[in-house]
Design brief:
It is a single chain. The protein has 245 residues and is an alpha/beta fold. Helix content is 26%, strand content 33%. The protein is built from 6 helices and 11 strands. It has helices spanning 10-19, 26-40, 56-61, 73-80, 120-133, 204-213; strands at 45-48, 66-70, 89-92, 104-109, 134-145, 158-164, 167-174, 179-188, 191-200, 216-222, 236-243. The protein has a 7-stranded mixed beta sheet with strand order 3-2-1-4-5-11-10, sandwiched between helices. It is globular and about 50 Å long. The mean pLDDT is 96. The chain binds S-adenosylmethionine (SAM).
Length: 245
């Protein structure tokens, strides 16, 4: 049966760790893992969109049992090939609907991956799916950018986010529908390689409402994993919702 790996197919999976190298830096990973260890307590952790195990593997090494949900078999193959990769359980499926046995003390969705769900209905379903996997008092943690609309002059659609010698990226906004397509271009072997991925950007307050619909309340919101304050200048947030008992 053919497998649909979504946007993180073999071509993307093969270069994922290298192209996201700065996100694998221990200075980036360690604070994420520290916070998740604390929230997991003696329980299990559920990662939505586990990818190649950037967070799941170090979290497992810190003694927290981790289970992942992931659409892309190509990404999971990279996870499996790493030391300890076989110890992490993975369910192949869509994290807004896929179910896993047992309950968890923490679920997490990092690196703006909530935006990969391109409709409000799917994002709402994701919160509901998470709530059904959490123990009462368990937490859902999301790391996601604040929509960059302050940088988009009225009437404009495109915003450049990266320019370097052989790589360019720009976002294409569809403001009326909270839609965003990130276009990535790079030169590979003298040819232009293009990857365009659709997202649905979402406001912190809208996420709070989704949490509420799913029986969860906001416990904390920071601008980073070291509990930096979230302010009007913050360009991302780390939010923690708690499942009401
Ligand atoms: C940006 S990567 C992040 C991977 C990993 N969490 C990390 O921090 O490195 C997003 C991952 O989420 C997966 N993904 C995107 N949408 C998904 C969905 N609806 N259900 C399951 N996995 C999904 C992709 O296949 C990809 O592996």
């Amino acid at each position: 049966m053919p497998v649909d790996d979504g946007y993180f197919d073999e071509r993307v999976a093969a270069g994922y760790d290298e192209s996201s190298a700065e996100m694998f830096d221990p200075e980036v990973v360690d604070p994420v893992v520290d916070l998740l260890v604390e929230l997991a307590g003696n329980g299990r952790a559920l990662e939505l969109g586990i990818g190649t195990g950037r967070i799941a593997l170090p979290l497992t090494q810190r003694g927290v049992p981790v289970h992942g949900i992931e659409l892309s078999q190509a990404m999971v193959a990279r996870l499996r090939a790493k030391p300890g990769g076989d110890e992490v359980g993975v369910t192949i499926g869509d994290f807004s609907t896929a179910t896993v046995d047992g309950t968890f003390s923490v679920a997490y969705l990092v690196y703006s991956t909530i935006l990969n769900l391109t409709t409000q209905a799917a994002q709402v379903a994701c919160f509901q799916n998470v709530a059904s996997h959490l123990e009462p008092g368990g937490c859902f943690v999301i790391e996601v950018g604040v929509p960059g609309l302050q940088e988009l002059p009225r009437g404009n659609t495109f915003r450049v986010f990266h320019v370097s010698e052989n790589r360019w990226g720009f976002d294409e906004y569809d403001v009326a529908n909270q839609g965003l397509i990130s276009h990535h271009f790079r030169i590979v072997d003298g040819k232009v390689d293009r990857l365009s991925i659709p997202f649905r950007y979402v406001w912190p307050s809208e996420l709070d409402l989704m949490a509420r619909l799913a029986g969860m309340s906001l416990r904390e919101r920071w601008s980073g994993w070291k509990r930096e304050p979230f302010t009007s200048e913050s360009d991302k947030h780390v939010s923690v919702w708690e499942k009401r008992p």
